[in-house]
Amino acid sequence: MSKNKSSESVKVVVRCRPLNRKEESNGPSGGIVQMDLRLGQVILRNPRASHSEPKKTFTFDGVYDANSKQRDLYDESVRPLIDSVLAGFNGTIFAYGQTGTGKTYTMQGMWLDPEKRGVIPNAFDHIFTHISRSQSDKQYLVRASYLEIYREEVRDLLDPNHGNARGLELRESPETGVYVPDLTSCVCKSIKEIEEVMNVGNQARAVGATDMNEHSSRSHALFLITVECGQPGPDGRKHIRVGRLNLVDLAGSERQAKTGVQGERLKEAAKINLSLSALGNVISALADGRSGHVPYRDSKLTRLLQDSLGGNAKTVMVATLGPSPQHYDETLTTLRYANRAKNIQNQPRVNEDPKDALLREFQLEIARLRAQLNHRKWRSQQKKEQVDDDGDEDPECEEEEEVEKEAEDYVKQEEQRLEREKEAIRGDRSLLAEEKQRLLGEKERMMGDLRKEQEATEQLTAKYKAMESKLLVGGKNIIDHTNEQQKMLEVKRHEIAEQTRREREMQQQMLVQDDETLELRETFTSLQQEVEAKTKKLKKLYAKLQCIKAEIQDVNDEHVRSRQELEQTQNELTRELKFKYMIIENFIPPEEKNKIMSRMTFDTEEDQWKFQPLVPTESKPLQMKKRPASAVGYKRPISQYARVAITMGANTRFRAENIMFLELDMNPPNTNSLGRLKDAEQDQSSSVDNSPTNDTSVHKSPSWCQSQKSITSSSSNVSLTACTTAVPAAAQ
Length: 732
Ligand code: ADP
Ligand code: MG
Description:
Layout: E1 8-9, E2 11-16, H1 21-25, E3 33-36, E4 41-44, E5 56-59, E6 62-64, H2 70-86, E7 91-97, H3 103-107, H4 119-133, E8 139-150, E9 153-156, E10 171-173, E11 177-179, E12 186-188, H5 191-211, E13 220-232, E14 238-249, H6 256-259, H7 263-288, H8 300-304, E15 314-321, H9 328-341, E16 345-346, H10 358-388, H11 400-427, H12 433-470, E17 472-473, H13 484-521, H14 527-587, H15 590-599, E18 600-603, E19 608-611, H16 640-648, E20 664-665, H17 671-685, E21 699-700, H18 702-713, H19 717-731
Parallel strand pairs: 2-6, 2-15, 7-14, 7-15
Antiparallel strand pairs: 1-16, 3-4, 4-5, 8-9, 8-12, 8-13, 8-17, 10-11, 13-14, 18-19, 20-21
Helix pairs in contact: 2-4, 2-13, 10-11, 10-12, 11-12
Bound molecules: adenosine-5'-diphosphate and magnesium ion.
């Protein structure tokens, strides 16, 4: 299934939003972020440092300043990725940055304003426009799912019950990578339908936002689109390519110390920070390239993005920044993350003919329904020919509509014929009334059958059409605006974006090469000139050294800060743990605690402790212990002690084989039953020597009467003793 297997790095672009009103009113200091669009560089000024201190410069695959347009970002950085998804690659776009820096704005934007629509709505447009313009031998199936990760739980946003439902599990398969097995997936036939899916999911998030105190910005949201494309290959067989697109809007990466949250919110922030720091660790491990272990399993987010980071996917990361001097530290951290992410290498490949392609299932189902319909059509044709005796038409070459029309005509004709026959029967005087009734009934039944048949065919046709309509066929106009001019305009825009990107890449390369070749190009005419040039170079290198020193200091500071934060979280957790220990030690008996502990196992897949079932669930049912071979002849196994006791004759209790139950009938006896009982007792007294008491105040149950025989016949003295002691006691 692999094709085009090559390595490519994660594309990282940076976007800075404009100063908002509050930040503008804070003072005239302006922003701390400068951007060189031509070179793709971000220059960051430290507001606390002196002016002489050099600014930090980072280079990326693209930078977008406060004046950038949503469309530019899409055309330059996202469009090529969506094209790859349509060609069968996996793709991921994720927005990363501090809260309020424009992640949601970049991913979603403002839906109603065409200029401000974000990556997601533009991707919808792109996908369906592409399908409508593709060749007619291509069949597409588009599916969408929407999930969020809230407090390390994966929730299905399209499940109406999502707020109450338990978190979904993650599974991994060699074919599709990590996936969510029970996730709702909606087949979408148009932009409108996929937008509807997005709205439903967003509303589920919005409900959370009001109920759970701004929860929307506290969860990571993933919108997943699967595009399956079937096309006949050169070998004449239909091949299916499956592209999966993940559109990810992460929760904010703010520091908990800065937000000053406590209690539940602190835990919530800790969970967000946990997944984001896990993401950071994964990025670091991958960018480093030396560490063999990549900690994907540390959080749900990193597991879901496993393929997108270092796996089978093309990935674009949009790092968002705020220009405010207040958030210098966060901006710097974001830029560092983004800078590291550039080094991640992915191995994207086309997913061709995967086993789980839904398109294949749909095609098979459609073929099956079609065969059923054809069979019905053929049957009705046969009947028609019998009626008309006119068989010169070939049913195979007819179009579907014609067939349907013909079937309808046939049913109408049949109905008319049956009606005529019924009239004829009614009018026929030679028939007896009974005979008439029978014939009319028969015709009535035939008409009923005919209608049922027609209904079944209609249902089948409807099902067939519904299935078929889910598949989109290239070349058909799905949306209206596919006129040539617009097409040309888009192609031009695409070309310009591509050219800008290439230009930037070349500029960046030139800059690197300039530094390297400076020395080679220099020829000095005098010693003085050489000294000057070398001094200049020394200065340059010294500045570079200072930059790197400052960078090392920064990284150290950052490390100390994050260690302090971790310690703070650890302290919180230790306190909580001590509290729980206290409860356990004081309120749970040690033996119960041990029992519970011996049954617990840790499920690494779900990252949770679980109870082992009390009864082993292995397929082999629990077998009864076998009787010891030495006990042949005994009705049930008996102990060594009992056997000795029997041989000694010391205690007859051990000879007992059967236990007799004596039930007392508590209904007060009446004279009738007493009479019968007396008779029965008289009968029995002849054969039973040890007859029970004649006290009639208690009615002995029939089981008691029957058991008398077993007493005499068996040698069981113990039953007898039990009986004689039990009955009088009960009879009092
Ligand atoms: P986040 O999702 O990162 O928390 P939002 O996307 O909600 O942040 O953005 C916060 C605010 O900033 C919103 O009001 C949004 O309209 C505005 N904003 C963000 N980026 C831009 C931008 N590039 N241009 C204009 N406004 C922006
Ligand atoms: Mg947001």
